[in-house]
């Protein structure tokens, strides 16, 4: 069974048969008929439907600290070609192959209708093109998970765990190399999530962790509006006013936080991680709670960095990235 990406356009096409004048697409998502779309067309015409946005509405990726695969099943989707226009007359039915939809994307050079081959057991992160293997970069003593296909999961999708001391795991024959970074000289304490970690939806539509090992700077910016108010008091029989009462009154006060993170030193083969972070639409920051540094909180963020220069060991020698994130909410609670 194929796996399709719906973060890029997905086209389903049918060629109109002899004497056919309209076609109905019945789109089933998770075994429920969600959409019925009719087009009029003449015999021999290739009719195309773009379904990615329709399917993507049913993939709700959330992150609360638990890593759960987010996919939908497209089985039973079919074309019905009718002899009359607007879905009237006799019909011929053509059922499409069942597929699993992932909220991933393809690049322009990968062509139309990008897919992921589920029959290949592999990690759902980018492969290091220089070392020709899978590598992640994690602080010493840090455990975690990595998205994967196959192996324990019977050719489905899951998150495979690695331990706090693991330097590699190979649950289904494909090795994931875990490079441990000594953060002691930065007085970091990732074991209690006291320093920021970014979790983002990668190219494959799965959650991926990326650690930023060096400097982090958080800032807050406030905005306000004011109006001039009348403070004259005539209750005593004459006009007076208090010199401690403001005539300029503040309203619509709001505030936003942002954080700037420095990646620390990564090899050139990890450039794809930062590219996919830059292109991700859903990102979360794990940071310490202000009230208890031993506990972490997860907050949604939006990457405000809009460009990235691909760095190489030839040009830069040591490769590091600095990225800026805005909190995806107002600091002063205004949810109504």
Q: What is the total number of structural domains?
A: 2
Indicate the percent of residues in helices.
under 10%
> Which outline best applies?
flat
% residues in beta strands: 35-45%
Sheet having the most strands: 7 strands, antiparallel
Encode the helix/strand succession as letters: EEEEEHEEEEEEEEEEEEEEEHEEHE
N→C terminal distance: 44 Å
SSE-based structural type: mainly beta
Low-confidence parts, pLDDT < 50 over ≥5 residues? 187-193
Mean pLDDT: 88
**Rounded Rg:** 27 Å
Number of strands: 23
The number of helical elements comes to: 3
**How are strands sequenced across the largest beta sheet?**
18-17-21-22-23-20-19
Mind sketching the topology for me?
Blueprint: E1 2-5, E2 11-15, E3 22-29, E4 32-40, E5 46-50, H1 52-56, E6 71-74, E7 78-82, E8 91-95, E9 99-102, E10 115-116, E11 122-123, E12 134-139, E13 144-149, E14 157-162, E15 168-169, E16 176-181, E17 197-201, E18 207-211, E19 216-228, E20 248-262, H2 271-279, E21 283-289, E22 292-303, H3 313-316, E23 322-327
Parallel strand pairs: 1-9, 12-16
Antiparallel strand pairs: 1-10, 2-5, 3-4, 3-7, 6-9, 7-8, 11-13, 13-14, 15-16, 17-18, 17-21, 19-20, 20-23, 21-22, 22-23
């Amino acid at each position: 069974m194929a796996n399709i990406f719906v973060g890029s356009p997905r086209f389903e096409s049918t060629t109109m048969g002899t004497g056919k004048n309209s076609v109905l697409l019945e789109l089933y998502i998770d075994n429920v008929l969600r959409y019925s779309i009719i087009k009029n067309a003449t015999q021999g015409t290739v009719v195309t439907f773009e379904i990615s946005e329709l399917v993507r509405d049913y993939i709700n990726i959330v992150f609360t600290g638990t890593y759960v695969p987010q996919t939908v099943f497209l089985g039973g989707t079919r074309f019905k070609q009718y002899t009359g226009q607007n879905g009237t007359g006799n019909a011929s039915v053509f059922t499409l192959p069942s597929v699993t939809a992932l909220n991933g994307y393809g690049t322009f050079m990968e062509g139309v209708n990008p897919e992921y081959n589920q029959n290949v057991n592999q990690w759902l992160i980018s492969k290091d093109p220089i070392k020709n293997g899978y590598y992640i970069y994690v602080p010493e003593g840090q455990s975690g998970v990595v998205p994967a296909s196959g192996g324990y999961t019977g050719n489905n999708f899951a998150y495979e765990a690695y331990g706090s001391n693991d330097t590699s795991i190979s649950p289904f024959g494909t090795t994931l190399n875990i490079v441990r970074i000594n953060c002691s000289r930065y007085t970091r304490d990732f074991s209690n999530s006291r320093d920021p970690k970014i979790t983002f939806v990668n190219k494959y539509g799965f959650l991926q962790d990326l650690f930023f090992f060096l400097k982090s700077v958080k800032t807050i910016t406030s905005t306000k509006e004011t109006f001039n108010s009348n403070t004259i008091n005539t209750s005593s029989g004459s006009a007076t006013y208090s010199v401690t009462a403001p005539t300029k009154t503040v309203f619509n006060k709001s505030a936003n936080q942002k954080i700037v993170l420095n990646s620390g030193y990564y090899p050139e083969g990890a450039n794809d991680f930062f590219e996919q972070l830059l292109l991700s639409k859903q990102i979360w920051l794990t940071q310490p709670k202000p009230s208890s540094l031993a506990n972490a909180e997860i907050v949604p963020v939006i990457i405000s960095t809009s460009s990235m220069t691909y760095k190489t060991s030839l040009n830069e020698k040591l490769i590091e990235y600095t990225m800026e994130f805005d909190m995806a909410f107002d600091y002063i609670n205004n949810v109504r």
